[in-house]
Design goal:
- The chain is α+β, with helices and mostly antiparallel strands.
- The chain is 31% helix and 20% strand.
- The strands form two sheets. A four-stranded mixed β-sheet has the order 1-5-6-3, with helices on one face. A two-stranded antiparallel ribbon has the order 2-4.
- The longest helix is centred in the last third of the chain and has 13 residues.
- The radius of gyration is 14 Å and the shape is globular.
Length: 110
């Protein structure tokens, strides 16, 4: 039963990568510290504050079942080379999917 529940989460979330649209035409450079959102982490696994530039494209990476944000460090490096920012949404894959979805929405709206 545990494996079946895990796979259903994987099928829905499936290590999804969400693209957060930013208005890149704005002239000012705005750095935003988002470390107060506990489930938004750096994808490289370092325990450093997370800052984003609101004038650059942002990729929000969501890991799948039996995974973590740290497993996306190579992908985050690729996006960095393309001048795109990444942050990872980390969650307990044993939590109910509706709770995880609510936490993801709350994190994206913060």
């Amino acid at each position: 039963m545990k494996i079946k529940a895990c796979w259903s989460k994987c099928l829905i979330i499936l290590g999804a990568i969400f693209i957060v649209n930013n208005d890149v035409s704005a002239p000012q450079q705005a750095q935003v510290l988002i470390s107060e959102i506990k489930q938004i982490k750096r994808c490289d696994g370092l325990e450093l504050p997370v800052t984003i530039n609101t004038n650059q494209p942002l990729r929000l990476i969501v890991h799948g079942c039996n995974s973590s944000a740290k497993r996306f460090s190579a992908l985050a490096k690729v996006y960095h080379e393309l001048d795109q920012q990444t942050v990872c949404f980390e969650y307990n894959d044993r939590d109910r999917l509706d709770n995880v979805a609510k936490n993801l929405i709350d994190a994206m709206n913060s």
